[in-house]
């Protein structure tokens, strides 16, 4: 199974190798830039040009949470390996760590001088890797919001 985002504001889940569409998600009002499965496989997080991050429940086939707080398009998203946190990277030069249980932004990572284009939690750690249009990579401790590198 693979999930893709598109300029048509939708995400689609595809079965491999036959290419059948298993599910389509509607709700974003601009392009879908990132898609990432929750480690348990029961949910999906998406990021969008509409400045939001959305959590989708795959069994309910719908959006269960919309996270708002970025000032510009959100370029990428990632789940923490424990499944309680989501990270997002935005064209507003920030990244955010969202607490899915409390449904709020826990931390905002500031330090890049241009769009943050990708974000990823390192497996089984509190370390987050970001890459930016300012031509830098940064490692962050998501517990203390400090830049490690």
UniProtKB/TrEMBL annotation:
SUPFAM superfamilies: WD40 repeat-like. One of its GO terms (biological process) is axoneme assembly. Keywords: Repeat, WD repeat. Pfam families: WD40. It comes from the Eukaryota. SMART domains: WD40 (SM00320). WD repeats lie at residues 25-66, 67-108, 109-149. InterPro entries: WD-F-box_domain-protein, WD40/YVTN_repeat-like_dom_sf, WD40_PAC1, WD40_repeat_CS, WD40_repeat_dom_sf, WD40_rpt. Coiled coil: none annotated. GO terms for cellular component: axonemal central apparatus. PANTHER family: SPERM-ASSOCIATED ANTIGEN 16 PROTEIN (PTHR14604:SF3), WD40 REPEAT PF20 (PTHR14604). This is SPG16 protein.
């Amino acid at each position: 199974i693979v999930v893709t985002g598109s300029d048509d504001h939708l995400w689609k889940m595809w079965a491999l190798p036959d290419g059948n569409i298993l599910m389509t998600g509607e709700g974003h009002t601009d392009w879908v830039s990132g898609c990432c499965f929750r480690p348990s496989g029961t949910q999906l997080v998406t990021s969008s040009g509409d400045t939001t991050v959305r959590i989708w429940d795959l069994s309910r086939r719908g959006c269960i949470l919309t996270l708002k707080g970025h000032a510009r398009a959100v370029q990428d998203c990632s789940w923490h390996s424990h499944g309680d946190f989501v990270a997002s990277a935005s064209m507003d030069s920030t990244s955010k760590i969202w607490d899915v249980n409390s449904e709020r932004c826990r931390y905002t990572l500031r330090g890049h001088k241009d769009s943050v284009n990708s974000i990823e939690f390192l497996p089984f750690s509190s370390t987050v890797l970001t890459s930016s249009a300012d031509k830098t990579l940064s490692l962050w401790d998501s517990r203390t919001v400090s830049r490690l590198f």
